[in-house]
Specification:
Radius of gyration of chain A: 20 Å
Order of helices and strands of chain A: HHHHHHHH
Oligomer: homodimer
Strand content of chain A: under 5%
Largest sheet of chain A: none
Helix content of chain A: 55-70%
Shape of chain A: flat
CATH class of the largest domain in chain A: Mainly Alpha
CATH topology of the largest domain in chain A: Tetracycline Repressor, domain 2
Chain lengths: ~200, ~200
DNA sequence: CTACTTTGCTTACGGTGTAAGCTTACGGCG
DNA sequence: CGCCGTAAGCTTACACCGTAAGCAAAGTAG
């Protein structure tokens, strides 16, 4: 977790910061990935950063703020550029797959998305490219939002089902290849059905 | 929480129980409904039942077991008899709506379903009637499970989006009628699209 | 140097889940 | 009746949590 070479703050005086908000968030996500959500205590997070727990409060209001920041971080990670040639239905499918990829890359963090809803602006930025494809096809913003958000909640719900475990399961719980295949084809079937359904309603 | 008139246990001797597992679960759900998930502490739950916190451990292994039991309780509540004349697509739509109704009846409990996945047998019992409609139409069990579970995760994901709030919101957060309408029509659109998509794939 | 500002640290408190062992209330049996 | 086994509930205690309050340190500006 090396600090950036030039860490002089913008503001005038004061002790130079040894901690960045981004450092904290990235470390928090790493802890969640390796040891799970419950392992992310303020003391643990501080220890990982070589700092006392209370020092974190200079940068984030409380533990919930840390978790919310992790959610935003994940949203940024899920952002994908879209091929400009895609139709809205292709873009929608791609969006769902990309969002899913990000969630599965951080299985222990997925329940966070359920508990700490994504900031609305962050969410819109994440879906922005797809929404544009709908607009380009002459569809209303309402229809676009309905379709994209429907896919988004499906992806999240599906990921929850995939990574979920009666909490108390032995730590990391590596997924078998068969299980992964099962969930993947279920996912594709559901996503395809939903996109096809919207296509039938909106017309291509 | 009056005890049932005849509360003699089945087993031989011993002090007669003053607490039932069902009492505990029902009270837990009531606390969650009124004061939220965080308010459900073992001490609080004991106090509501007129009992010391540690007494609960005679009936449920730990707090997570209480939460899991609440989830099962909700699943039982979501169970709906289906009209035998329904096609699989009608039954599927009805199932989604009924599941959604139950979730919205307990908004503060919805995140539980994300965190504590439903027991597999409980889930199958919940979906059993719908699965039968698929079988009656000659569809494979795999296809049936894919469709029903897809709807289920969509319903849960959607409910999470509806009831979710940056945790720290002022307690109960009553929903405006406009918001409820918005989510309802979004829900109908998404569910309809998904069911239509599966219908197109499976054939009616 | 002194004054100021910002960061990080120390200490402390109330609340949590729950492990260990004790007490209480019953039904059965001598 | 007295005693005993047994199951339910209670008391106490502990480690750990988030975080409020105030202090120490490390820079810049004058």
């Amino acid at each position: 977790m090396a600090t950036t070479p030039e860490r002089r703050r913008a503001g005038r005086g004061g002790r130079p910061p040894q901690l960045t908000r981004e450092d904290i968030v990235a470390t928090a996500l790493r802890v969640i990935d390796t040891d799970g959500l419950d392992a992310l205590t303020m003391r643990r997070l501080g220890a990982e950063l070589g700092v006392a727990a209370m020092s974190l409060y200079r940068h984030l209001a409380n533990r919930d703020a840390v978790l919310a920041a992790v959610v935003d971080h994940l949203a940024a990670e899920a952002f994908t550029e879209l091929d400009p040639g895609d139709s809205w239905s292709e873009a929608l499918t791609r969006f769902g797959a990309a969002y899913r990829r990000t969630l599965l890359a951080h299985p222990r963090a997925v329940p966070l998305l359920a508990t700490h809803p994504m900031d609305i602006d962050v969410g819109l930025r994440l879906m922005g490219g797809v929404l544009d494809r709908f607009a380009a096809a002459g569809l209303s913003r309402t229809d676009a939002l309905t379709a994209v958000q429907s896919v988004a909640v499906f992806v999240l719900g599906h990921a929850l089902a995939q990574v979920g475990a009666p909490p108390g399961s032995p730590a990391a719980r590596p997924e078998t290849a068969e299980a992964a295949d099962y969930y993947q084809s279920w996912f594709v079937a559901g996503l395809t059905a939903m996109v096809a359904g919207f296509a039938a309603r909106f017309g291509r």
